[in-house]
Design a protein that fits this description.
Layout: H1 10-18, E1 25-29, E2 34-39, E3 42-46, H2 55-66, E4 77-83, E5 86-92, E6 97-98, H3 114-127, H4 134-137, H5 155-175, H6 181-193, E7 201-203, E8 212-214, E9 220-223, E10 231-233, H7 235-245, H8 253-268, H9 272-286, H10 297-313
Antiparallel strand pairs: 1-2, 2-3, 3-5, 4-5, 6-8, 7-10, 8-9
Helix pairs in contact: 5-6, 5-9, 6-9, 7-8, 7-9, 9-10
Length: 315
């Protein structure tokens, strides 16, 4: 699996020291950038990956979410600067520790702990109470070239249009790994546009273990790193994607995805068919985000998900 995380450097530590922060230190690193703890409840995010296309829009989205009384904290952008051509945002520090700082690739429990599934349900239920806003509708999901909701009034239609655009980017590469890809795309697009109207709420879109922080009892304390697939949309999409990406590469990943999909369908009232549809749409819209030639773990994960769904549908 290719590691696409950004790296910490001493140059950034020196920069934050010059700005008056006494003991900056590395905190975390991901696809979009590296995060440094500055002290006094403040962190700096160095956007060495893809920065927000519209920082003010991102600030509004964070504010729209943070103003709601959720049972956990969410990010707020307090200040920003551009240093040597790189965007840096200064945000409030979020408490707690991630469920796992690294993906589970070598060992993991076959059955997810009850505290883990309870925390996921708490987060999904809470985010589903945050209404989708115009700022959220104005966001562009990673890999695309326009706001997801542009010229659309319904989330399923906006997602269907994204599927069409995304599979035109490098669909020939994906087709080499997914037999019958054209038929799969047609089925997903038709099924999305046939979905009934649903509530439109805040969608995080990347609820993986490092982005969900908990306290010593397993209670969620913070949800962070909005931006990868953040938008306004159907809360069933959030549940579907979370079930799929919570464990992508562990030895029991398929079992965990199936378990969480069933759990979210039962506890949150979503149709299993809708969750499976949204999972296919996620794979079709994110397969090429880390490489255009299919030479990465995420691409192969997306291809495997699509092959698995096709095999199930043709039985």
């Amino acid at each position: 699996m290719v590691d696409h995380r950004q790296r910490h450097t001493d140059d950034w530590l020196a920069h934050f020291t010059r700005r008056g922060h006494r003991a900056p230190r590395p905190l975390a690193a991901g696809v979009e950038g590296a995060v440094y703890r500055l002290g006094e409840g403040l962190v700096a995010k160095v956007w060495s990956g893809r920065p927000p296309a519209d920082l003010e829009l991102s600030r509004r989205v964070h504010a729209d979410i943070a103003r709601h009384p959720l049972p956990f904290a969410t990010p707020e952008i307090l200040d920003s600067e551009v240093h040597e051509g790189v965007l840096v945002t200064y945000e409030r520090e979020l408490t707690g520790s991630p469920f796992r700082a690294e993906p589970a690739t070598t060992s993991a429990e076959r059955d997810l702990p009850a505290a883990e599934t309870a925390a996921l349900l708490t987060v999904l239920r809470a985010l589903a109470t945050v209404p989708g806003t115009e700022a959220m509708r104005g966001l562009t999901v990673q890999g695309d070239d326009r706001p997801l909701w542009r010229d659309r009034t319904r989330f399923p239609d906006a997602l269907a249009a994204l599927v069409r655009r995304a599979t035109r980017r490098h669909g020939d590469v994906l087709a080499a790994h997914v037999p019958g890809l054209a038929e799969t795309v047609r089925r997903v697009v038709d099924s999305l546009t046939a979905l009934p109207d649903s509530p439109v709420t805040a969608i995080h879109g990347d609820l993986v273990p490092p982005n969900l922080h908990v306290d010593d009892t397993g209670r969620p304390t913070a949800v962070l790193d909005f931006g990868f697939f953040t938008t306004a949309g159907d809360p069933a999409f959030e549940a579907a994607v979370t079930a799929a990406v919570w464990d992508m590469y562990g030895p029991h990943a398929r079992h965990h995805t199936a378990t969480l999909t069933r759990l979210f369908a039962r506890e949150l009232g979503h149709r299993p068919e809708t969750l499976a549809l949204y999972q296919a749409a996620y794979a079709l819209t994110t397969y090429d985000l880390f490489s255009s030639d299919g030479d990465d773990g995420h691409f192969h994960w997306c291809a495997a998900l699509l092959r698995g769904q096709r095999a199930t549908s043709t039985r």
